[in-house]
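Co-fold these.
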Amino acid sequence: KAGVTQTPRYLIKTRGQQVTLSCSPISGHRSVSWYQQTPGQGLQFLFEYFSETQRNKGNFPGRFSGRQFSNSRSEMNVSTLELGDSALYLCASREGSNTDTQYFGPGTRLTVL
Amino acid sequence: DAKTTQPTSMDCAEGRAANLPCNHSTISGNEYVYWYRQIHSQGPQYIIHGLKNNETNEMASLIITEDRKSSTLILPHATLRDTAVYYCIVREDNNDMRFGAGTRLTVKP
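Predicted complex below.
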């Protein structure tokens, strides 16, 4: 099976802009989670989607949002970008139950200037 | 906050076993212990997970103490490619994974 794919791999934006990142999970996986990784804060959980519904949410402001489509593909949106949003954004998928293993994509490196 | 404690860094000689410890003293009965590693800002790679029993796969072995308050990941014959940050994670009740700072393992020739 193909792994988790994320597009784009690299992105440069300026403050105040918005950005949309995309994630395609492993075939058959219904859960998609998003994480932010920065040198200062490490890997932090953003949210999880399962069957097009947000199932879990981390402690991030409302500027960070997401959605999931019927084919399980997911998008993450960040509005009104701030310099501190520069990070590696990681997507992970799993089949769906609580004990399923998560598999991560390669990430999208976002730089906000 | 992560529910695990790991050493910040460790070194290992190439070809030797790498033993990475993890403390999770507040783990509850239905929480699994997961290990991932991350090589140079790539996405984290799943290694192994377990609940109570020791586990082994093609990558590593996981030894969990009887009281489940700590575990050890064993890479039996470390190679230079095993240099990475290793994360020990206890699965939260609400299903998300809380990553700590991990252990930076450096395998030296």
